Amino acid sequence: MSLGNSLFQARKKCGLSQEEVDLLENYVLKWDIRGSRWTQGKDWTWHPKGYGMKWTEEDRTLLALVDEMEKTAADPQNQTVFISHGDCLADAELVSEEVRRRFGTKDIHINYVGPVIGSHSGPGTVALFFLGSPR
Fold first, then answer.
1. Strands 107-112 and 80-85
2. Fold (CATH) for 55-135
3. For the segment 55-91, what is each residue's pLDDT rounded down to a tens digit?
4. How far is CA 96 from CA 12, 93, 116, in A?
5. Boundaries of every domain in the chain
6. Distance (Å, whole) CA 39 – CA 60
């Protein structure tokens, strides 16, 4: 089955919007996903920056933010998410892409951290803000 046909079937069966299909298509092309990769039934552990990229501690830390959101967010698909960064837009965008991929969140805002937080945390800071479930 071709990629286009697979995505058409996914849209038809799952009720995906065209925007969601476009995101999925970009992800599939980025990862070169074929055959049994669609149905392997395991957690997704591939690098979010693309196929063959080497994992760094920074990458693991950024994904840990999204892992925590996965455990504690209340209705992540339908809420507004904020990501603040200290002069590391690419890292903030990686977190944003991962939040969109995992939860389908549409309303994500990326901004710089303010001067007070930035003076204490320094460059390279990434913060993820969302509504969590009660403790």
1. parallel
2. Hypothetical Protein Tm841; Chain: A;domain 3 (3.30.1180)
3. 889 988 998 999 999 989 999 999 999 999 999 999 9
4. 26, 5, 24
5. 1-42, 55-135
6. 25
